[in-house]
Amino acid sequence: MTAAIEWGRLLQVVWVSLLAGVSVTALFSLVIYGSTRAAESRREGRGLAATAYGFFAVLAGLSVTAIVVFGIAVIVRK
What we know:
Layout: H1 7-43, H2 47-77
Helix pairs in contact: 1-2
C-alpha cells in the first residue's frame, strides 16, 4: 500500500513552521532587549524610559505566549 503525499499540506506545514519559528525567536529577542534596556534605564534614573521598555518587554512576552498557546490549541484540535 502506498501513501499519497499531499504536497499542498506539506508545503503549508513548512511555511507555517518557518514563520512561527522566526516570529517567536524575534519576539523573544525583543523581550530580552526590552528587559535589559529597562534595567539599564532604571539604574540611570530614567523612570519613564524604564517603564516604556518594561511595557515593551511585557507586550512582546505576551505575544510570544499567545503564539505558543495558539500553536498548542491547533495541535490539540487536530
